[in-house]
Amino acid sequence: MTRNSPNSHTDETSLVLRKDEGPVATLTLNAAKSRNALSGAMMAALHTALDQIAGDPAIRCVILAANGPAFCAGHDLKEMNGISTCDGHAALFSQCSALMMRIVTLPQPVIARVHAVATAAGCQLVASCDLAVAGTFAKFATPGVNIGLFCSTPMVALSRNVSRKHAMRMLLTGDPIDAQTAWQMGLISDVVEDDDLITATDDLAKRIASRSGMTVKLGKEAFYRQLEMPLSDAYAYASGVMTDNMQKHDAREGIGAFVEKRHPEWRHE
């Protein structure tokens, strides 16, 4: 069943469109003329949509897509160039960082569906998502060095997805990479034919959404928290998470269903 969220803008003039199909919400960047640049208004609209989804128990997975010839061209350079103060630029980059953190801290997994170019902060947006499915036509770049503005904030997400030398090569040259290279580097999780991009992403989102929402939420949070811990601390933390997980209804239901050879009936708690 397809439904438009009553809490989101759904008209075609909105910067971010939301469409729900069962437990999967698709957020679509809708500023094709600006190549979906992350202007202050675009970032605010996307952040608001994510906040609404975070509090929506009916949604268990999110797809982040885009209309137009680009997935996302990064920051709006005209807007940036029109800001004359240090405080103004600091506020813009802080807003962008908060948006990326909102994706990471969102209870639901977020899958980027990349059909075309994702550059600079657009590449950061892809790297910040939990998964990313790209068509073969997609390209990725952090080209700030070409215009005298090193992609320092995109570097944070990029360097947490790919090896140091791969990240540095992208950052120091600004050269674009194709989808197959991005997959080999670990920037994206899947590459599919362009004609199959929507179906493949939808199928992946539906598979994730068919799992216990409680379990996925708990696991996503634990994944990111343990990444920055020393090994022994990570094991201690993860052991505590699994102990807590075992006390939940869905863990008992899932194990019982496996033993009894039946499908689990999730309560998402």
Automatic annotation (TrEMBL):
This is Enoyl-CoA hydratase domain-containing protein 3, mitochondrial. InterPro entries: ClpP/crotonase-like_dom_sf (IPR029045), Enoyl-CoA_hydra/iso (IPR001753), Enoyl-CoA_hydra_C (IPR014748), Mitochondrial_ECH-domain (IPR052377). Keywords: Fatty acid metabolism, Lipid metabolism, Transit peptide. The keyword Lipid metabolism applies. Belongs to the enoyl-CoA hydratase/isomerase family. SUPFAM superfamilies: ClpP/crotonase. One of its GO terms (biological process) is fatty acid metabolic process. It comes from the Bacteria. GO terms for molecular function: hydro-lyase activity. It comes from Thalassospira xiamenensis M-5 = DSM 17429. Coiled coil: none annotated. May play a role in fatty acid biosynthesis and insulin sensitivity.
